[in-house]
């Protein structure tokens, strides 16, 4: 499987779809090796994104195979649909949340699966678009919704939750040491005027940080942004619920792979897989999560924190 450099991939994406951002599929080689998609298989890609992993899975399952591709971001889903046009007959593209997979599979008349991939987190398409409000380094509205039809944005959380609720989000989802200091600065300042942009939020977080923290290489607001994003999209809850539903749909010897970029998500997968193993439902294929190779990290630094866990249905 050849791997494009980030620049080559960006050029290809700009040429084909007119978007300047590319999401390079993370740990593609490992995903294919461990999920082992075969001719005629039925696969779920619960986070189809820009269709990078899906494309390789579709190649492997061939014309008799079927892929259900879900994404809660309609924009990403349309791009995936366009990219995977030539496989249209083998695909169901579903705009939705993977936590609802029980209903989605019922509607599609699917009873079981040979393989499942969840690549949770934000895509580069989302991260690189300042209007989506995910990126700490660009100026944009405080949005952070993966599903642009979602009811609650980061603006709503930042401007209406109590000081205590904000601190809890920062502590629980960002493991932020200075959660209470940040929450206090946010609440004190929003009385003057609502906090509307990523820049305003970033500045307030910086103001709450002790001097030594302000000089760190990783932006001091990174944890807080991540925490608000997780809260807006209820990411941990979705993953937890989805794992129960998806694992029940796997055929014996069918495999599930989950890529996480955050230790809290990875912990959910670890604990669920361990519990399913105790119940005799799953067998762990790797005891410790797989990590991207040095080469992949050089080509695509954004994959650095990725962890891939794989298990097999008994
Ligand atoms: C890291 S990207 C996936 C990239 C994809 N594997 C590829 O190769 O292009 C994650 C995607 O999952 C979607 N997503 C995250 N949580 C989701 C959920 N609960 N249900 C459906 N889609 C979700 C995001 O909108 C995003 O497009």
Describe this structure in words.
The chain is of the alpha/beta class and 314 residues long. The protein folds into 2 domains: 199 residues, Vaccinia Virus protein VP39 (Rossmann fold, 3-Layer(aba) Sandwich), CATH 3.40.50; 83 residues, Putative methyltransferase TM0872, insert domain (DNA polymerase, domain 1). It is 47% helix and 14% strand. The protein has 15 helices and 7 strands. Strands 3-2-1-4-5-7-6 form a 7-stranded mixed sheet, sandwiched between helices. It binds S-adenosylmethionine (SAM). S-adenosylmethionine binds next to helix 3 and strand 2.
SSE blueprint:
Elements: H1 6-17, H2 28-35, E1 42-45, H3 52-61, E2 66-71, H4 74-83, E3 91-95, H5 101-108, E4 113-119, H6 124-127, H7 154-160, H8 163-174, H9 179-190, H10 198-208, H11 211-214, H12 222-233, H13 235-249, E5 250-260, H14 263-278, E6 282-284, H15 294-299, E7 307-313
Parallel strand pairs: 1-2, 1-4, 2-3, 4-5
Antiparallel strand pairs: 5-7, 6-7
